[in-house]
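Example 4.3 (complexes with small molecules)
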Amino acid sequence: MSEQRVKISGVGGYLPARRVSNDELAQTLDTSDEWIVSHTGIRARHIMAADESGTDMAEQAARAALARAGVSPADLGLIVVATTTADYGGFPSNACLLQARLGAPAAAAFDLGAACTGFVYALEVARGLMLCGSGRPALVVGAEAMSRLVDWTDRNTCVLFGDGAGAAVLEVTTEPDRGILGSYLRADGTGSGFLWAGGGLRVPPPNPEPRQAHMQGRPVFNFAVKAMAEVVLHFLETLQIAPEEVRYVVPHQANIRILQAAQKRLPIAPDRFVVTIDEVANTSAASIPLALAELDRQGRLAPGDVVLTTGFGAGLTYGGNAIRW
Ligand code: UT7
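Answer. The structure with oxa(dethia)-CoA bound is encoded below.
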């Protein structure tokens, strides 16, 4: 009998309508288009409307991915939403809200928190559950409302982030040479202080911390370069993939300089690295599925393409997935 694998059968993305340029930010913040572009590669980000939520964005991306895969919500056995900016501070999860919206009564539903590496983690968690579970399709979403978490007076962080959602539908397949070939999930909790958001229950009432992101950019930058290269090298070595076989490296979109520095450590040509950061900024767990959805929208993904995802984020977490499309 042929080996069972899990393939991605559809992807979809959603960006809020409002596009905010660097120049617009510079009207209220001590920054400039020149600084942001030269230090990060970011030209614009999309920001949610006041009446929009992370679940609203997840729903749009999920519906697009389900339509692309030709899968009905009623058939789903699992919904995982990777997010660290859920609609509610504690519960219910965005995944349960999404399950109700879509009408997916057979689906287990939970959120997964691995920050910007969340989608990478969620793909592997879903793959594992599918291969030892019901065999039903799964929906994996990365959705982040970063604009609600940043301090809009802190130029060190607020210019870097944007809102958005990306989704993938996963199905079990016995097609040879197709599907997720492997994943690599890692964390280094000793770096937890470099990137964190308050507002949890660590501090008891009556003076809880504000729910805001804090970052030391340089150590995160240095960690990211090493981590993203390590992930790709791991796949080349353990799966015996030749560098020229790699059609796309889809990295977490945090900073163009991080991508370029990671690329220089790898034997893979620069044009294989997918770059979307200029128009979307850092959308955390949504960044990799949004980039996959954009590739698909442009008709650039073909069956058999080898796609390596690689990401890093708060935790610090890092990891990737090796996929034969
Ligand atoms: O998903 C994970 C999320 N986090 C990341 O990926 C962040 C990783 N780190 C980075 O991307 C970079 O470290 C940053 C983009 C955050 C910063 O770039 P950098 O080249 O490391 O700059 P820096 O921290 O060394 O700061 C240089 C200067 C500082 O001024 P002084 O102290 O030299 O006078 C900052 O205050 O740039 C200043 N600066 C800004 N200036 C204008 C910081 N942010 C801005 C800004 N506009 N938005």
